[in-house]
Q: What sequence folds into this?
DNA sequence: GATGCGCTTTAAATGC
DNA sequence: GCATTTAAAGCGCATC
């Protein structure tokens, strides 16, 4: 009954509002991250160094995951797993 | 006592971990947003159009805020507010 | 003398053609890469594994570079280098 | 003789290195393209507009190719070509 | 303290 | 449909 031109406008509205709410949350967190950097800088840490460390840690983590994946793919290729 | 080369390593660790945690949260929300789009698509909505609508609504909101700001400026100029 | 509406059309043409030529080259190399994958597949290698290995090797290389950079940035922060 | 678990490791190595080399070349060209854009910007051109022009030219080219193809189809249908 | 600039990140488009 | 590739946005940084 709330259809307009064949689309359920209530449902569409809900979808859009959910996305908007999530995007707001995301923005809020991004802002929190910025605050942490600002605070860190204010107590004498170098933001550049912090960013670099975080980047390396992330890469190490990713690499570990990728290597696990590679093992899976090898085992699959060798018929050791389905 | 946990200083290494003049930097408090405990505190640095805390900073880094806080940022990492926040980035994880951010990533989680980004993933939630993607899920909503996927779900919307599955019930027949066009993601591209939804994005466009959200973009327009965001712009309208920005405009509204800018107009409010302008009103403040005028009111201030007229001595109606401090 | 070859200006149209204030822009040197000869020069603009040259810029555009240079970019187009480079993009063609890039496309050609992308195609070569695809060929290597196809050939590898034809002799029994699994493309997925190859991609994964290359990704890991790239990451290891990047990580090494980033760590060098981090060292630089520390040394700079500690006044050991300009 | 250089087989490990049934895969010829020499050959695999060669495949991987060929791909890596090609990817490096590709990256180099991408970097060249960026340089051309930078240079264009420095003499006053708008990168965004240049991109748009290139996009349009590419589309026209595609259209032309599609038309050629159509001509082929017609000629074939008319028995003018094999 | 403002502005521009490059770079990183994020969004969108394309191709397999 | 997914992964890659490309375009756009946002952000920090440096400079004036």
A:
């Amino acid at each position: 009954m709330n259809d307009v031109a064949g689309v359920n406008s209530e449902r569409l509205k809900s979808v859009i509002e959910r996305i908007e709410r999530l995007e707001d949350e995301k923005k809020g967190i991004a802002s929190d991250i910025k605050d942490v950097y600002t605070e860190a800088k204010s107590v004498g840490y170098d933001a550049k160094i912090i960013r670099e460390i975080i980047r390396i840690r992330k890469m190490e983590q990713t690499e570990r995951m990728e290597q696990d994946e590679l093992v899976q793919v090898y085992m699959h290729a060798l018929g050791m797993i389905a």
Remarks:
- The CA atoms of residues 21 and 27 of chain A lie 10 Å apart.
- The interface with chain C takes residues 46, 48-49, 52-53, 55-56, 59-60, 62-63, 66-67, 69-70, 73-74, 77 of chain A (CB under 8 Å).
- The radius of gyration of chain A is 23 Å.
